Amino acid sequence: MQAKVRWIDGVMFLGESGSGHTAVMDGPPDQGGRNLGIRPMEMLLLGVGGCSSFDVMTILQKSKQQVSDCYVDISAERVDEVPAVFSKIHLHFVIKGKDLKEAHVKRAVQLSAEKYCSASIMLSKAGVEISHDYEIQTGD
Question: For the chain, how are helix, strand and coil distributed in percent, rounded to 5?
Answer without folding.
Answer: 35, 40, 25
